[in-house]
Amino acid sequence: MELVVSLVIVVILSAMAIPSVMNSLRTYQLNDAAARVSDMLKFTRFEAVRKNTQLSFLMQQTGGVWVVGTSLNNNTTIDPTKRQEVLAGFTTILPATGLPAPTSITTALGVGALTTLSGNPSSVTFDGRGAVRASFGGALATSVYVIYVGSTVTPQYGYRAVLVLPAGGTQVWTALPGATWRRIS
Fold first, then answer.
1. Which of 64, 136, 160, 176 could lock 34 by a disulfide, CB 3.0 to 4.6 Å apart?
2. Rounded CA gap, 160 and 148, in Å?
3. What is the side-by-side strand order in the sheet with 132-133?
4. pLDDT the model gives residue 17
């Protein structure tokens, strides 16, 4: 009888803990995906500075899987011999539709609007000084670019926005559905 009571208590405590554990896991997965995109942007920028040349960060989609990486010869293909990150499963790169309005981001940065790279294969070009170019060989960018990361299946865990500033720096912001964005790194 004591064993049955003990097992019932363990089952009840486990049932109460599972939602909290799942929330923590999903939050970790979102933060990890945003950090991997941000790190790949930083890697591309540092490689451009190190090589004193223009290099492009690329986002490419194959089916439901997104791959982010660097094009070392500045074509439209991620170099398969170099570092790249795959976003698959719970987290993915999202289009800008249906997300919280970026008003708090644009207000904090003092810009009129963000240029969304999410939802389509896109690129960001860094020059030999680490600044962002509007295109390969183009003028210096004046836009703040954003890549949204989240889940299309369970949006209640929130979203992440990875920003690329014209000077080449990156920031990560977070928001729950219907809430305002706040900077986390």
1. 160
2. 6
3. 84-87, 65-71, 55-62, 122-126, 132-133
4. 74
Asked if 95 and 148 count as a contact pair (C-beta separation under 8 A), the reply is yes
Could you read off the pLDDT of 7-38 as tens digits, one per residue?
Answer: 888 888 877 777 777 888 888 999 999 999 99
DSSP bridge partners of 55: 126
**Which amino acid would we find at residue 17?**
A
Residue of 167 and 4 predicted with greater confidence: 167
Where are any strands of DSSP class E within 27-64?
55-62
DSSP state of 72: T
Boundaries of every domain in the chain? 2-183
Residue type, 167: A
For residue 166, what are its two tokens? 């014209």
Task: Dig out the tokens for 47 from the structure.
Answer: 């490689």
Q: Which two tokens stand for residue 128?
A: 């030999």
The CATH number of the structural domain formed by 2-183 is 3.55.40.10
Closest residue by Cα to residue 54 from 117, 116, 131, 115:
131
60 Cβ contact partners less than 8 Å away, ≥ 6 residues apart? 66, 67, 68, 77, 78, 121
**Cβ atoms 184, 173 nearer than 8 A:** yes
Q: Are 91 and 108 in contact (CB under 8 A)?
A: no
Q: Is 21 exposed, middle or buried (0-12, 13-18, 19+ CB in 10 A)?
A: exposed
